[in-house]
């Protein structure tokens, strides 16, 4: 199987309408959060020959060896894992898998069902009748920016639907439940998150639902909603009433700052819901990028979903620490973190963690062996012990902020010539590669290829000589050329062409430079980001939307950074700057020899027009069995884009940057918003043709869901907007359905 590199290229970039439309494409950022972190584990075995997959422990369970030397894994029933000790918490997870709610009439997980496929088996809405969709209800959370939060909202919310209720979180973590049929609010709970806690933006991507085993229905918090907050708490409320769960932590709240160190608002935050596996709520946190080597730890922790008790901690820099640090100490600082959504595997008792890069993204010379070992990896963790079982690293010595942003999807991967299926995990990446791995071992089910990395950069031998590349499929396009540079006028195009010639660029994995700019392509937002992919498990089709924008970066020598007064968030900094700029724009990277400037999306000065010709984003259908492209098209029209930010209102499909993901239905439709044109659309899964669209009252940078209530299928999307994407901000959740007969 060969990598598919086909992608639509715009041959009409010189057409006036297209040029006018694209010039103000909001690419300033598709803002990225910081990276994930490891946990307490035996000293990791060295990477295998290709440096990609490392088997750390057999997947059978805690009684089998957990490292390459055959050392027995910790027994959760032994004295060393006895519950109640502060530094060695007990293994609180159930030893047997519990029955999981399934997607269908409900949407009980952030990714739809427990496999995170974002596929609905509902088929009431079809290509033949989708143009009859009408707006049924609109719910407004009331959470809008003002004062200190003005210009800092990027909600990115996906609701859950369980029973007859939707469960929603707003940008500032206000929880609410609404009637799935009418959109009427039933309850709301405000955890009172302070504006200072906002990192890049105020975002809550969703919540987790948990049913307490064997609890009677009338018991308080028999079913509960758990969310992570921007001020680093886990909050649990009763799913029926919205009242805090008194048995969870301190009256419904667990402080995630415990063990992290000095509390610096905005540096450590949670934007993704926890993954609950065998009764353990597993969470990481966003650590704001580019601030300092001595950043908060990226520790991953598991908490009892009923009591909030710490079950285990995985600190990659201190594998002996399995619980809370001793008083006065912290988890290892500066390690990779997990800011995005994990995936639970109830059957195997594993949780799959997409880890990010180190706290200094663009300089690797000072990194520890542990950072090099774990950064930008998918790690399978045994949820009963908190110990890694295997890891798969997608970038070696990552200096491009290519952290794993997408949630991994569990699939049954078809064998060759109809030879059965293998339980597998599908992993998208920001550089565009899509990997297929054995779910239990992490071994690639399709061969991994190698890319020889270019020479150059500021670190010499600190770089990796080669980088892994998927032999299954990549969303990545051909390398940029000078001919890809363009503009609204000949002068704009000339500026971009000169900048291209002056920059260091030798294709993907061009190393960072300080004496001149270098081009990073794809940029740090894609390929695939947090919106993830959808998989039609009936037809065997992957649906992947993607970004196709470069970044124009330069390392800033420390002397120059000091003259520019670039300081990390924990030092004196204007409070109003928090969350107001894109990651990478003048980040200090304190402790390293260089700060960093990133022109996210590479826009020309003054006009803000992109230097790369369109399309800047697209959507693709891929055959699951073969990895071959079925169709590919630009995603996003020019209706809201134009020179100097003036909307052109041209409905031309040009392909804009996008933030958010899709879902696919058995009815043969792909539903997606994500682009900067404020449209939600239904796309024919067979052809890629848009069959229906509607204008949203704010940006649709979120993932849609589909559910059934009282015999009627409902499509719901958050129209919350996104300040980095420069789309209008709102507080809307909107439901669509076919007319009742």
Silhouette: globular
Strand order of the largest sheet: 1-21-20-19-18
Helix content: under 10%
Major sheet characteristics = 5 strands, antiparallel
What separation lies between the terminal Cα atoms? 48 Å
- Rounded mean pLDDT is 87
Secondary-structure class? mainly beta
Total beta strands: 44
**Rg (C-alpha, Å):** 24 Å
Q: Name the beta content range.
A: 25-35%
Q: Compute the number of helices.
A: 4
- Which regions have little confidence, pLDDT < 50, spanning 5+ residues? 1-51, 58-90
Notes on the protein architecture:
Belongs to the bacterial PQQ dehydrogenase family. InterPro entries: PQQ_b-propeller_rpt, PQQ_mDH, PQQ_rpt_dom, Quinoprotein_ADH-like_sf. The protein is mostly beta strands and 741 residues long. The protein has four helices and 44 strands. Strands 1-21-20-19-18 form a five-stranded antiparallel sheet, with no helix packed on it. A five-stranded mixed sheet has the order 2-38-39-40-41, with no helix packed on it. Strands 3-44-43-42 form a four-stranded antiparallel sheet, with no helix packed on it. The radius of gyration is 24 Å and the shape is globular. The model is unreliable at 1-51 and 58-90 (pLDDT under 50).
């Amino acid at each position: 199987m060969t990598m598919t590199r086909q992608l639509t290229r715009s041959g009409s970039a010189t057409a006036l309408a297209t040029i006018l439309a694209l010039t103000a494409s909001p690419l300033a950022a598709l803002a990225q959060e910081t990276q994930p972190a490891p946990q307490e584990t035996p000293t990791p075995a060295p990477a295998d020959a290709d440096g990609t997959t490392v088997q750390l422990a057999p997947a059978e369970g805690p009684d089998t060896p957990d490292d390459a030397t055959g050392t027995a894994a910790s027994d959760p029933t032994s004295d060393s894992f006895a519950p109640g000790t502060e530094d060695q918490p007990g293994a609180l997870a159930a030893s047997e898998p519990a029955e999981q709610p399934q997607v269908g009439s409900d949407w009980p997980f952030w990714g739809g069902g427990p496999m995170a496929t974002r596929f609905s088996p509902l088929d009431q809405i079809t290509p033949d009748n989708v143009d009859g969709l009408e707006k049924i209800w609109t719910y407004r959370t009331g959470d809008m920016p003002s004062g200190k939060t003005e210009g800092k909202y990027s909600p990115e919310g996906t609701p859950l639907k369980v029973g007859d209720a939707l469960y929603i979180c707003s940008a500032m973590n206000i929880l609410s439940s609404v009637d799935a049929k009418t959109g009427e609010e039933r309850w709301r709970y405000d955890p009172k998150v302070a504006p200072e806690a906002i990192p890049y933006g105020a975002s809550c991507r969703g919540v987790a639902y948990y049913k307490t085993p064997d609890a009677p229905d009338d018991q308080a918090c028999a079913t509960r909603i758990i969310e992570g907050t921007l001020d680093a708490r886990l909050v649990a409320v009763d799913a029926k009433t919205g009242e805090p769960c008194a048995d969870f932590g301190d009256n419904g709240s667990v402080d995630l700052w415990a063990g992290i160190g000095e509390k610096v608002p905005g540096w450590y935050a949670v934007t993704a819901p926890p993954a609950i596996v065998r009764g353990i709520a597993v969470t990481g946190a966003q650590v704001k990028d580019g601030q300092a080597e001595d950043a908060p730890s990226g520790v991953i922790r598991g908490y009892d979903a009923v009591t909030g008790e710490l079950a285990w901690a995985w600190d990659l820099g201190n594998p002996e620490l399995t619980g809370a640090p001793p008083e006065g100490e912290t988890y290892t600082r500066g390690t990779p973190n997990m800011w995005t959504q994990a995936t639970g595997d109830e059957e195997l008792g594993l949780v799959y963690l997409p880890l990010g890069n180190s706290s200094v993204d663009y300089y690797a010379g000072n990194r520890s062996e542990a950072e090099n070992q774990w950064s930008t990896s998918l790690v399978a963790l045994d949820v009963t012990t908190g110990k890694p079982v295997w890891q798969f690293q997608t970038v070696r010595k990552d200096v491009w902020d290519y952290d794993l942003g997408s949630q991994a999807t569990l699939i049954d991967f078809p064998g060759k010539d109809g030879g059965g299926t293998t339980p597998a995990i599908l992993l998208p990446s920001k550089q565009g590669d899509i990997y297929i791995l054995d779910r239990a071992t992490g071994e690639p089910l399709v061969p991994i290829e190698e890319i020889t990395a270019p020479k150059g950069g500021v670190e010499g031998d600190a770089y990796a000589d080669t980088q892994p590349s998927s032999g299954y499929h990549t969303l990545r396009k051909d390398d940029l050329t000078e001919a890809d540079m363009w503009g609204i006028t000949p002068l704009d195009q000339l500026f971009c062409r000169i900048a291209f010639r002056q920059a260091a660029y030798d294709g993907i994995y061009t190393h960072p430079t300080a004496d001149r700019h270098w081009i990073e392509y794809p940029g740090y937002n894609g390929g695939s980001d947090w919106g993830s992919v959808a998989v039609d498990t009936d037809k065997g089709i992957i649906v992947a939307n993607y970004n196709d924008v470069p970044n124009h970066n330069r390392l800033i020598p420390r002397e120059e950074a000091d003259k520019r007064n670039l300081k990390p968030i924990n030092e004196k900094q204007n409070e109003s700057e928090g969350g107001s700029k894109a990651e990478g724009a003048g980040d200090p990277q304190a402790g390293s020899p260089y700060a960093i400037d990133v022109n996210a999306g590479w826009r020309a000065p003054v006009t803000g027009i992109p230097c790369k010709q369109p399309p800047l984003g697209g959507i693709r259908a891929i055959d699951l069995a073969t990895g071959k492209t079925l169709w590919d098209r630009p995603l996003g029209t020019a209706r809201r884009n134009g020179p100097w930010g003036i909307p052109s209102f041209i409905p031309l499909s040009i392909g804009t940057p996008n933030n958010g993901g899709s879902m696919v239905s058995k009815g043969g439709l792909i539903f997606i918003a994500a682009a900067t044109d404020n449209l939600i659309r239904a796309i024919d899964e067979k052809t890629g043709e848009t069959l229906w669209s509607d204008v949203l009252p704010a940006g649709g940078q979120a993932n849609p869901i589909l559910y059934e209530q009282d015999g009627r299928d409902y499509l719901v999307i958050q129209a919350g907007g996104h300040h980095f994407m420069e789309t209008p901000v709102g507080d809307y959740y909107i439901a669509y359905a076919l007319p009742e007969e």
